[in-house]
Amino acid sequence: MNNRRRNFRSRPQKNNFRRRNGSLNNTNTNNFNNGNIGFSRNGSMNNIHSVEKAMIKFQQLAKDAQSNGDPILAQNYLQHADHYLRRYNELSIRKDNVIEKTNISEDQVIEKNSLEKKNSTQSSN
Q1: Is 69 left (phi over 0), alpha (psi -120 to 50) or beta?
Q2: Would you give the distance in Å from CA 93 to the centre of its chain?
Q3: Half-sphere exposure (CA, 13 Å, Cβ side) for 68?
Q4: Considering its fold, how many domains does the chain have in total?
Q5: Has residue 93 been placed in a domain?
Q6: How many CB atoms neighbour CB 43 within 10 A?
Q7: In terms of residue numbers, what domain contains 112?
Q8: Distance between CA atoms of 17 and 66, rounded to whole angstroms?
Q9: Any domain includes 15
Q10: What's the CA dihedral at 19, 20, 23, 26 to 10 degrees?
Q11: How confident is the chain (125 residues) per 10-residue block, as mean pLDDT?
């Protein structure tokens, strides 16, 4: 039996999983690492439904704190709810813009198809 300690050998990195802050082989990296860069909340602040749920939760917590006689805690919860309300409004505006762009592009495709049909019928006559 060999009693000699084996040196640690690193395994080659697998590339079939997602990294939070991109590839490690980035050529523009330096040794400074700001903790906020690449920070992800797993999409919780980009999902309009979870933002709405958090807003409603803090509104309810504020009501409960107010009924328990703690106006400072109620104000704190209302500030949190206000933050989520602002984020909810941003996401809903963004969603409306995407829907509007999609409708415009669909209208353009329909218009283009109708022009092509019109041109093909004119050229066949």
Answers
A1: left
A2: 14
A3: 11
A4: 1
A5: yes
A6: 8
A7: 48-124
A8: 47
A9: no
A10: -170
A11: 67 60 54 54 77 96 97 97 96 90 79 77 67
